[in-house]
Amino acid sequence: MKKTLLTLSLCLVCLATFTKNRLVVSKAPIGIELKKDFQVQARINGGEWKDIDTYAFKVDRVSNAKHNVEVTSVAKFEFEGKVEIQVKSLAQDIKSYKIRPKSYGIEAAQEGNTLTFSLDRPRYLSVEINGNIYQNLQIFADNVLEKPKVKKKDLMYFGPGVHDFKGDSIHIASGKTVFIDNGAVIKGWLSTYGSRDVKIIGHGIVMPGRHEGIMVRYSKNIYIDGPLTTQLPIGGSDSVTVKNAKVMSWYGWGDGFNIFASNNIHQEHLFARTSDDCSTIYCTRKNYHGGCKNITIKDCVYWADVAHPIMIGLHSETPENEEITNVLYDNIDILEHCENQIDYQGCIGINDGDNILVKGVTFENFHIDNIRKGMLLNMRVCFNKKYCTAPGRGIEDITLRNIAYTGKAPNMGIIAGYNPSRKVKNIRFENFSINGKVISDDMKEKPKWYKTADMANIYVNDHVDNVTFSR
Asked: So what's the pLDDT on residue 65?
């Protein structure tokens, strides 16, 4: 009996070992543009190195108020357990490097122009050589996704290769499951218009050109896991989950993950490098009608080459008196924020217009890297006449907890109400730090006659009530 138990235990250990470490690499389809700035390889412990193709992706660099296209590199693969990655810089010698987000604490061994490091969980990374953030390498090291076992009539399968729909729409009907193989590229965009109970799964690429890649519209019970695309908006919908998705855009108004007039939305483990806002929550807009409530967004990496990493409010229709309520952003890494227009600056932006009330929003566990141009915070009840027909009704009950900024001093932040009846109320900062210094009401460096917000370089106007800073 003891021998039998011992044998069973050894078998289980062997099985666990076998399933624990797994690497799945898919070749890029023939005809898809690659970039040769880096040589990327990966292996599991004791395994052979596997070559990983580096796709050419467009990103945005704004100069003199114009969008300029830069071409960056993207490498992607799937794994379980622990994987070792080797990145060789071919375009330039390595004098310095960064692997971001810094909060991940990834250390690389450098040998000449080659960096070697390990991952023990899915991560979305930027490898930057000599401070170059435009010809950098994005690594999307993802979980393994298998082709779903569903009835053939319910499955839309996009296998390895190019699926050219000439940039047109592909409608996903109710009850359908879409699987996009990691080696697939779809030249078109997916739409769930009016659909229910849809799944879109797989780490393949949806690349329609200057258009949203996957659109969830007037839909319910939608589950999306894995794709890489241009934009992924949700509008007029309920009960939508988006996990392990990546968006990259280069054109004007290329927002990342929009939420319009939708409820019960869960977004988790996302990457956005965008030519406009990375993450937004709006009310009535683009023929989507209503407020937003019950939104959870967690474990995301945001890189705004233009505009806001996070933007809430602004858009609605004045007579509606809509609300944005019960929102959580948790465990967010902001890598870049660069915006010339002061009205549209802010790593965390709440610009409240069109009679919207924004209430009950929590931002917690943020790591914000050096801001190239912009503010940490822009929280205003405002009347932006370009987009609104009235100011917002107010901003209330906002918590900012464990927010850490590291870098040079950003532009002055703003907390501002509109008038005595359209105020900002009850803003709580808890463990808010700038370059390691916690800003608190009892900090010794603060003169008694200063507002604590002065110590954080945040302007607070006369239509704001009850702003507190605690450790």
From this structure: 83
Convert the pLDDT of each residue in 197-206 to its tens digit: 999 999 999 9
**Greater pLDDT, 268 or 18:** 268
Residue 8 pLDDT > 80, yes or no? no
pLDDT tens figures, 139-156: 999 999 999 999 999 999
Residue 6's CB is within 10 A of a number of other CB atoms, namely: 10
CA dist., res. 55 & res. 7, Å (int): 46
Sign of CA dihedral 52, 53, 58, 62: positive
Span 347-363, mean pLDDT?
Answer: 97
The length of the chain is 471
Looking at residue 16, what is its pLDDT?
A: 46
